Amino acid sequence: MDDPLIWVRTIHFASTLLVSGTVFFLIFIAEPSFRESFDHGATPAFVRRQLRWLAFGGLLVLVFSGAGWLLLQTANMIELPLGDEFSEAALGMVLRRTGFGHDWIVRLGLVVLLIFPMLALTWEKSTRPRWIGLVAVGVAAGLVGSLAWAGHAAATPGAEGTLHLAADIIHLIAAAAWLGSLIPLALLLGAAIHKDSLVGQVATRRFSALGIASVGALVATGFINGWILVGTPTALVNSSYGRLLLVKLALFLVMLSVAAVNRLVLTPDILNPSSTSKGSRTMLGRLQRNALIEATLGAIIVVIVGVLGTLPPAAVAQ
Amino acid sequence: MNLHRSIVSLAAVSFLVFWANASAFAHAELRRATPTAGGAVSAAPTEVVLNFSEQLEASFSSIVVRDSVGKRIDKADARVDPGDHTSVRVTLQPISKGTYIVVWRALTADTHRTEGAFLFRVGE
């Protein structure tokens, strides 16, 4: 637990999920909600500004934690401490000659590519060409999906390795879409409560759909990854990796139950046309609070992922 | 509220569980060695081939073979198979009867290190 690599990975994963999730949220939930509720006034500008701070703050953390990850990983690979006279040569070697290094360079490029679209999309004025949104979504998906090459999937051999990579990429994108958009959702709901509850209702409905799709993808790809990395139910219980995975699963189930409350209890009330505006605002407030609870659980899951990456897959350690 | 309490206790349990468990072990397992680890061959081998459970990073994986007086008898040309990155091989100089030691280090494609050593005998 005192391995700094665990923490720098955790922070990097969390900030990547947040940045990509914010982009997904903006394109698939926020902007359509503004359009559908015919709101072109103060609320969209306010939300876009908040999301800009969130996204760029997250991007800054992403870049610094990414640099830290490269440094710590290099020191780990060459077994010499940082600052040693060989460090620079070692960094060059890792960047040029390892899969981890190549992945790092690609992801740095994607960060750079994301800056302009993210600025354009979070600009307060509402008109922008459609293709910017598509580019942003593509780059954001690439930024989070390419984390697969920095994990166990990159080392699984053969055809199983290809399946593992594909499942991992989808798993990461789905995690960003769900976990990463919880805080943006909480921000939008806060704005909707204070200014205009119609945007809140539309966003709730859209987030529901996104949540269901993401959870479905997470479960399916999580099952595939778990089968490849753990292999048997006994390994699940008998190895550190397996036991940690069980904790991750338990947290996921708790998140799901909160999401179920959101979907089955709060959402119908929010979308009910005959509910009073005060009643809607109360429900939106509850949804906002639940979104933050889920975000906290999600953060713990990311810490577990940070640890899991440093452990041998149970199927190998057997 | 019940939901909050269960969340807090679950979070506490998680921290305890992974506090107790977090330690890094070796990753790439040596699945097969030619010549066999601890075995004997009648004819001197021309190379040593090691097969692992995971894909390796060529730049950070190596094999060194020494004879019983510690002299290096491999040609320092250890390389990972380009097709399937799970094996690494090194060519040997001509060797005679005796006991030899293979010392290997592997770095997997997901950046985890393993190392190991084994003996093999040539003759009778």
Question: How is the topology of this model organized?
Answer:
The complex is a heterodimer of chains A (318) and B (124).
Chain A: H1 4-36, H2 42-78, H3 87-97, H4 99-121, H5 130-145, H6 158-178, H7 182-194, H8 197-229, H9 233-238, H10 240-271, H11 277-308, H12 314-317
Helix pairs in contact in A: 1-2, 1-5, 1-6, 1-7, 1-8, 1-11, 2-3, 2-4, 2-7, 3-4, 4-5, 5-6, 6-8, 7-8, 7-11, 8-10, 10-11
Chain B: H1 2-21, E1 30-34, E2 40-41, E3 47-52, E4 62-67, E5 79-80, E6 87-91, E7 98-107, E8 113-122
Parallel strand pairs in B: 2-8
Antiparallel strand pairs in B: 1-3, 3-6, 4-7, 5-6, 7-8
Main β sheet profile of chain A: none
Helix content, binned percent of chain A: over 70%
What is the top-level CATH class of chain B? Mainly Beta
Q: Kindly state the mean pLDDT of chain B as a whole number? A: 82
Describe the structure.
The complex is a heterodimer of chains A (318) and B (124). Chain A is globular. The longest helix of chain A is centred in the N-terminal third of the chain and has 37 residues, at 42-78. In chain A, helix 3 crosses helix 4 (99-121). Chain A is 82% helix and 0% strand. Chain A is mainly alpha-helical and 318 residues long. Chain A is built from 12 helices and no strands. Chain B has 124 residues and is an alpha+beta fold. Chain B has a single domain (28-122), classed as Immunoglobulin-like (Sandwich). Helices cover 16% and strands 37% of the residues of chain B. Chain B contains 1 helix and 8 strands. At the A-B interface, helix 2, helix 10 and helix 11 of A face helix 1 of B.
